[in-house]
Amino acid sequence: MMADMGAVAEQTAKLHLDEETGELVSKGELKKRQAKRAKKAATAKAKEAKAAVAAAVGGNDKKPAPKPKEEEVVIDSEAMFKQGFLDDVFKERPMKPVVTRFPPEPNGFLHIGHAKAIAVNFGFAKYHGGVCYLRYDDTNPEKEEEKYFTAIQDMVHWLGFTPYKITHSSDNFQKLYDLAEKLITLEKAYVCHCDDTEIKLQRGGEKGATPRYRCEHASQTVEANLKKFRDMRDGVYKPREAFLRMKMDMEDGNPQMWDLAAYRIKSDTPHHRTGWDWKIYPTYDFTHGLCDSFEKITHSLCTTEFINSRQSYEWLNKVLGVYEPMQREYGRLNITGTVLSKRKIQKLVDDGHVRDWDDPRLFTLVSLRRRGVPPQAILDFISELGVTPSTTTIQIKRFEQSIRKYLERTVPRLMMVLDPIPVTIEDATETLDLELPFSPKDPAMGSHTVKFTPTVYIDRSDFREVDSKDYFRLAPGKTVGLMNAPYPIKATSFGKDEATGKVTEVRAVFDKEGKKPKAFITWVGTEGSQRVEARVHNSLFKSERPDDAEGGFLNDIHPESEVVYPDAVIESGIDEVKRRAPWPEAAGESERGKSGPEGVRFQAMRLAYFAMDSDSKDDKIVLNKIVSLKEDAGKN
Ligand SMILES: [Zn+2]
Question: What spacing in Å lies between the alpha carbon of 191 and ligand 1's midpoint?
Fold first, then answer.
């Protein structure tokens, strides 16, 4: 039967989470509790202040700033292009159409830092109605692998961007070679045979204290240089026996002007695209600016590590008389409390500390996707931080706070129980259909039907064998509200497994006459619900600086970074949430049905935000925790 549940649902929809106890309580009750706690805290603080004044006269007793009230602010993800650094960059060269590029080296998986580069380059072009190239900077055959090409492209699409064209630096190998010969002809490049020690000395020695000078090879004739360069190309030399150097300015204060390498011999590895065609490969310093020039990039945006390279970048294009793009540098995005280096992540994978490169506890983009972090939430986060020339270093919790704020208003709510124990309500005679909204605030999310059955599951942590006065959930003789259910229930008895000491079942009755319960808990019925595996992740590392741990970052691994609940139960609403994924439709998931399992996102009330994992099968859902409901939820 369909119960007349409107009033009940409405009433319980107004419940608020008491973050300290995890209980759902009325607004009044929550206010009462908060006032009580504030009073207690104030008393403690006054006591502390008194003691502090007594102990340290003249000490700094500045009051901490009051915690700002959390507001529901919808981020303008275009804000970073409308003002500040990126707006200034455009005004400096108001050239249209804007043409930008995102130029990753295809030698590793992208991480959260690259998301900023993608957002800046693709976003800048999009905002100004221009285009952005995805250019693989594939000039190092030793490090490149096909899987990285595919993964990078996937991530750009996932973040909601479409490259104007996908290009490769290697597309230009012949053009670059020809320009190198031209540079020699212009007496702006020479083939050098010096070794590393000699080069270091020429560049001012270990501490840069001795005078800089050029080697004898710098004074070779154009003809000699051309012959030697062609010999390099034709395999006459072995690797390291010769390299092409640009003849720049040894007097300049910028080390990027001290006759940088332009071409090196790499004859022992085939290139993934050009095979064995080339025995010499151009360096980053030679390639990057020229490829920008070939593609008529208007604004070449890179991170501040390349600020010294701006001079060599401009020098090369100018000397060769080609189209000159404008390079400008913004601060990179760093995140503490994790490791991002390829070598370290590989070690974590190899040693079995994480499942793979896409383990939800890592901060590669494939990991964040698998974990269920929505692409638009990442873009909003980057926009919220803003783009300036200074490096932004943030803590994981700051990132998670931003994700939480985004999920709060965009995903449906469901009831789930991680560690279920059955509660049999002895006087419940029939199953009731409850119509529950997916969101207490957004009616557009719709509603779904949940069966309230005579036996329901509650979480083990919501029952105590022995009651106490300051405890408001279920215990023998105690009444608790079941979220959205018609009546509160009172526990009458319980059964235990003598071997394990664990409670196996609870028996209860409706408490139809008593007072309104102080707290409400979540539950899942036995009909329509299903068993799922829930993986609850905590930070992979214990500290903010895993690299500083004694003995290295592996010693900083959190022993409980993943807690698995193999027998969690979730209500029937999950079926519709699955059917209607992705939640929400935004960025690279803007078409219904066009996301992976991670698009199935929801808030498990009182628990955390979850998303479906790629390990899910047709008959078994596996869930990942995306983020907790509140910042300090280290209670799991
Ligand atoms: Zn030399």
Answer: 7
Average pLDDT over residues 565-569: 98
Q: What is the mean pLDDT of residues 495-510?
A: 96
C-alpha–C-alpha distance, residues 308 and 606, integer Å: 51
Residue among 212, 214, 332, 542 flagged as catalytic: 332
Give yes or no: residues 163 and 282 share one domain: yes
Of 72, 158, 149, 69, residue with least CA distance to 107: 149
Q: Is 142 a catalytic residue?
A: no
From the candidates 342, 451, 507, 542, which is the catalytic residue? Answer: 342
* Whether residue 105 lies in the annotated active site: yes
pLDDT for residue 73: 60
* Residue 110 and residue 259 share a domain: yes
* Residue of 278, 191, 173 lying closest to 243 (CA atoms): 191
Backbone dihedral angles phi then psi of residue 489, each to the nearest 5 degrees: -125, 155
CA 255 to ligand 1 center in whole angstroms:
17
pLDDT at 46 over 80: no
Domain containing 282: what range?
A: 79-330
Burial grade of 374 (CB within 10 A; 0-12, 13-18, 19 or more): buried
67 pLDDT above the threshold of 60: no
Distance (Å, whole) CA 339 – CA 331: 19
200 shares its domain with 293: yes
Give the residue among 464, 572, 566, 473 at the shortest CA–CA distance from 522: 473
pLDDT-derived band at 633, boundaries 50, 70, 90: very low
Contact at 8 Å (CB) between 159 and 366?
no
Distance 215 CA to ligand 1 centre (A): 5
3-state secondary structure at position 243: strand
Per cent of the chain over pLDDT 90 is 79
User: Under a CB-based contact definition with an 8 Å cutoff, are residues 247 and 218 in contact?
Assistant: yes
Q: Which of 19, 105, 181, 426 is catalytic?
A: 105
Residues 323 and 418 in one domain: no
Last residue of a domain, one of 302, 330, 358: 330
**What is the pTM assigned to this prediction?**
0.88
Please state the domain count of the chain: 2
Quick one: 446 and 574 in the same domain? yes
Nearest to 306 by CA among 325, 280, 332, 343: 332
Strands 243-246 and 261-265: antiparallel
Contacts with 41 (C-beta within 8 Å, 6 or more apart), sequence order:
none
Q: In the listed set 296, 330, 364, which residue is the last one of a domain according to the structure?
A: 330
Residues 429 and 560 in one domain: yes
Q: Residue 152 falls within a domain, yes or no?
A: yes
SS3 76: coil
Q: What is the Å distance from ligand 1's center to 244 Cα?
A: 10
Q: Is pLDDT above 90 for 20? A: no
Q: CATH no. for residue 84?
A: 3.40.50.620
